[in-house]
Design brief:
about 230 residues, mainly alpha, 2 domains, 11 helices, about 5% strand
């Protein structure tokens, strides 16, 4: 959704992007000559600023995103494991650009951290932050789904293997579970690196660490602005 010119400049440091500048999508039924596009996406400004749309963002700690991506790509897409691919798919930079653009137009889109969606209560129940987010975007917090049927082997076999690997926890569960282990904000590279070396090898760990460190600034910026009950 981010403009190719912005992606090219950020990832490849390529300023020769004039040939990418016209990649825009127009709203159905609108006169494209009357539409503007000053935002970082290919979508028109009037679409993003419409009162009909509710925009909110989910962020996740880079240590969790990048290690999970490496684990999945290693199995399902070994040819895609390039530095550029990982930066493109794991960074919070695109989210930050759109968040700041919306803010400049008087819209403070809610941000929720993935860890804040998890529960540390027993028995498990929706977190206060998740309930607050529901209220902010006009949803009933008492209607939050807390249980669901476990996915069958047949259902998982019909899914894209990439989705199965990335959604294994929810597919193999029957509802909310109590979160165990450290939250993202409590994790340090010094503590995580030995685990990466063990799982991905020295080169893989170095690769993961580089991408994590690159992504921390944007993540921290957004985390400081997240929804807190």
């Amino acid at each position: 959704m981010i403009k190719p010119s912005i992606v090219s400049q950020y990832i490849y440091k390529d300023n020769d992007v004039d040939h990418l500048s016209n990649w825009n999508v127009h709203s159905p039924g609108e006169n494209k000559n009357h539409e503007t596009n000053t935002n970082p996406t290919v979508l028109p400004d009037n679409f993003l600023l419409s009162e009909r749309n509710r925009i909110y963002f989910t962020i996740r700690h880079p240590s969790k995103i990048v290690s999970s991506m490496h684990r999945i790509a290693k199995v399902t897409m070994p040819d895609s494991m390039t530095r550029q691919y990982f930066i493109h798919c794991s960074t919070s930079h695109w989210t930050r650009l759109l968040y700041d653009w919306l803010l400049s137009h008087g819209i403070e889109a809610p941000i929720i951290d993935a860890d804040d969606l998890l529960t540390r209560t027993s028995p498990p129940k929706p977190s206060p932050n998740l309930r607050k987010l529901c209220t902010m975007i006009g949803l009933d917090p008492d209607a939050i789904l807390t249980s669901w049927p476990k996915a069958t082997d047949q259902e998982k076999a019909a899914m894209n293997p990439l989705l199965v690997l990335s959604m294994m926890d929810i597919l193999d569960s029957e509802g909310l579970i109590e979160k165990r282990g450290k939250m993202g904000r409590d994790m340090t590279i010094e503590e995580e690196r030995p685990k990466w070396v063990k799982e991905f090898g020295e080169d893989g760990a170095k690769f993961v660490q580089e991408i994590v460190e690159m992504n921390m600034e944007d993540y921290n910026y957004l985390w400081q602005r997240r929804v807190v009950a």
